Amino acid sequence: MKNRKWLVAAAAAFVLAAVPASAKDTWKLGTAGQPGSVLYDTIMDFIGAHNKAFEGKRAIEYQLIVNEQEMTQQVIRGRIQAGATSLAGAGVAVPEGTVLNMPYVWENDPERVYVTDNFALPVLKDIYSKKGLVLFSVADVGWNDVICNWACLTPADVKGQKMRISPSPASKLFFQALGANGVQMPLSEFFPGLTTGLVRGGDLPFLYYVTTPAAQGAPHYVVTRHYHHPSAWIVNKALFEKMSPADRDAFVNAVPPVQEMRRRVDQTEKPKMEEFVKKGGFVHHLTEAQREEWAKLVRPIQADMVTTIGGRAPEVYEAILRGKKEYADRFGKKS
Description:
Blueprint: H1 2-12, E1 26-31, H2 38-53, E2 59-64, H3 68-77, E3 82-86, H4 109-130, E4 133-148, H5 155-158, E5 162-165, H6 169-178, E6 181-184, H7 187-196, E7 201-205, H8 206-209, H9 214-217, E8 220-236, H10 237-242, H11 245-253, H12 258-278, E9 282-285, H13 288-298, H14 302-309, H15 313-331
Parallel strand pairs: 1-2, 1-3, 5-6, 8-9
Antiparallel strand pairs: 3-8, 4-7, 4-8
């Protein structure tokens, strides 16, 4: 019953930010981020700052769209004007972005941030632009970890099990490397699928997972940290280019600074995990040796993933490799 109510709410939800009554134009920002999540709070901060800056001229409304692939397509077609999604969620429309989701490609968070901002992002902006989108900010959704309706602490536990995979190549190849029985489905089907037994688990970032029915349907959260989800803030390119230069600047500047968005994710995850455990959930923190058991099965498929993605994916991957080398040279970290 909870899942049914959630799906009805997801389909019908249309939560409005404070919209000036005198606004001449109204835009919609689509996202799967829900109340209670860091992404939702950040989105509402952006909407509030935007509506204040454009008062009487234009307002933005929040719209819940659980299917990120469909939401991205709606922004491209101009049915809605803007969106906030993971790069994986936008992967059907812009598959090259999912290179940043490659399993175990990052050594640590500082390396990931440095390489993303200085090497990968310029390439991605050009790729998104050619798809009819302006990628105006990239921050964090969080690390993806494995979720199950039982304590799946090792790769052997997942082998042969029905696990939901997203449309992202990272998700598909990750579970493929583990020998899982992958079932591809959007998030809107994933949550009831856990209840009906269609699947036994999947993978999600914790700060999103804990706001969804997956936290009840798959209460075992295994901290594999197998790949990271950047958050992509997008707007329809044709609409954006119609703005004056001053309005474009005001629009982009309404987004909280990327360092602040990342800080919120970093500082929120631990207390949210503790709260989840107190309510009866399970968070399984792995040792480095345990985590390596997952990683060693997955690393060999990284080159296959780039090939599978196609398009300009090799260009994005080469940018990442250059960035990792520069990071190692400058800061003495292993690349």
